[in-house]
Amino acid sequence: MSSSGHITVDDVRAWISEAARVMRENKEYLTQLDSAIGDADHGINMDRGFQAIVAKLPTLPADDVGALLKAAGTTLISTVGGASGPLYGSFFRELGASLGGKSEVDVTELATALDAGIGKIRALGKAEPGDKTMLEALLPAQAALRGAADAGASPADALRAAADAAAEGMTATVPLVARKGRASYLGDRSAGHQDPGATSTHLLLKAAADAWSQA
Amino acid sequence: MKKLINASENVVDEALAGMLAAHPGYIRLEEPNIVVRKDAPKDGKVGVISGGGSGHEPMHGGFVGMGMLDAACPGAVFTSPVPDQMLAATKAVDGGAGVLHIVKNYTGDIMNFELAAEMARDEGLQVSAVVIADDVAVKDSLYTAGRRGVGGTVLAEKIVGAAAEAGADLETVTALCQKVQDNVRSMGMALTSCTVPAAGNPTFEIADDEMEIGVGIHGEPGRSRTKLASADEITELLATPILDDLPFEQGDSVLAFVNGLGGTPLIELYIVFNKLRQLCAARGVTITRSLVGSYITSLDMAGCSITLLRLDDELTRYWDAPVNTPALRWGV
């Protein structure tokens, strides 16, 4: 964190590294979730994408939070594939566009960037709350982050609140019947299983909370 | 689950290298992992490309060649390919007459192909796209991701490829692809799931006396699980919703495609075709063309899919036209 408690480029790098570690650690788990209501590739795909960003980190922008996030998004689009690649990739690119030119950002700016990123996911995926997608985790996280920003919370505390809200949303996907994505082909049979996309979203936010709690 | 592979992370790359080694007269490989017709681009010819996750071989790479696809974009197993691949493929096959993207209706395929088309158009290339969504097992509604693109894709690639080979322009080729989509319906069933190399275990478990009805090609469970039935009963379970959906009517001529999902032997597919012909005849539907074999697979899934395409003279002519690819070859 900067001396004023703002998120720096190094903090974003730390988030990405932690996210990559967590995606690798949870590769089998995400694969398992995706086997129940999908095609068993979510864990492998997310691992590949984040490993690719980590491999590129040394060459990515060092002084511009937005440019770094945008490059991370482009890497995800070019390596992940499936629906996750365009969705997560465009999400990061939109975060990046929102924070372009800044060497450090505060929680309020991050919350605004998250709004833009979620807007992009909704425009691309056309999912609504309740469709049993990554939005079930993202939307509660969005509200929690904005609340934390308004209350003047530190980045670590704000992301902890967002990650915890995402966790609740993720768990809440279990009884839902999927209306989007591959799980929707299963109809009612998709109920009773946790959504893999909402799970990886929670992991992503928790990675930020964990990385910045150590900053 | 036993597999004939080396390291799971190298499956796609090694398979592509093997394909190139086996069919060097037909294809070349280009970055980033695309299969291109050896003599592409052909000046003045509309380029036709498709792509999707690996694991469905011979679709799509095996269909690259004269009279069918000009390029195919293979993703990771069961994972939609990335826009970079479709952009490269579009450029590689562009003969100045535009390029058609044949896109299977899956969330990931649609998004990645759209991103690629945007990028291609930004570079001044002329791109059109048609979505294949022929699986009647999925209700096309606000509550699903829409009908999956399955067996109909193979037929579209052949028919559209023939038209492009004959010199039809982009608008004509695109309309023809849409015509195939409008007249084709499919449904699949599975006796087993399949094992994704990196996962190491079947995607779902199923008992020896059970079957899944209404499956796609990615190893996910189907619409319902029931007790195993005879081949004739299974054929009826698949054919009836197909016939009802279009609907196929008295006097229609069809191309009947009985497809193996990878783990089912040809002898069983012919048993299914035998019953299919009877079921069609009972409805006054005549099978005038056929395709039997494993052309759009789901790794090692045991099971089959049925596809019926209502034919007219134009579609029949293009189906009959010569084709020379690793997986489909006639008239040459």
What secondary-structure arrangement, pairings included, does this model have?
The complex is a heterodimer of chains A (215) and B (332).
Chain A: E1 7-8, H1 9-25, H2 27-37, H3 42-56, H4 65-79, H5 84-98, E2 104-105, H6 107-125, H7 135-150, H8 155-171, H9 196-213
Antiparallel strand pairs in A: 1-2
Chain B: H1 11-22, E1 27-30, E2 34-37, E3 47-54, E4 71-77, H2 83-93, E5 99-104, H3 107-122, E6 127-132, H4 152-165, H5 170-183, E7 184-190, E8 210-213, E9 224-227, H6 231-245, E10 253-260, H7 266-282, E11 286-293, E12 303-310, H8 313-320, E13 323-324, E14 329-330
Parallel strand pairs in B: 3-4, 3-5, 5-6, 10-11
Antiparallel strand pairs in B: 1-2, 2-4, 7-8, 7-12, 8-9, 10-12, 13-14
Helix pairs in contact in B: 2-3, 4-5, 4-8, 6-7
Task: Explain what the structure shows.
The complex is a heterodimer of chains A (215) and B (332). Chain A is mostly helical and 215 residues long. Chain A is 67% helix and 2% strand. Chain A is built from nine helices and two strands, in the order βαααααβαααα. Chain A has helices at residues 9-25, 27-37, 42-56, 65-79, 84-98, 107-125, 135-150, 155-171, 196-213, and strands at 7-8, 104-105. In chain B, α4 (152-165) runs antiparallel to α5. In chain B, 32% of the residues lie in helices and 23% in strands. In chain B, the strands form three sheets. A six-stranded mixed β-sheet of chain B has the order 1-2-4-3-5-6, sandwiched between helices. A six-stranded mixed β-sheet of chain B has the order 9-8-7-12-10-11. The radius of gyration of chain B is 19 Å and the shape is globular. Chain B is α/β, with parallel strands linked by helices. In chain B, β10 (253-260), α7 and β11 form a beta-alpha-beta unit. Chain B has two domains: 13-183, Dihydroxyacetone kinase, domain 1 (Rossmann fold); 184-318, Hypothetical Protein Tm841, Chain: A,domain 3 (2-Layer Sandwich). Chain B contains eight helices and 14 strands. The interface between A and B is medium-sized, with 34 and 36 residues.
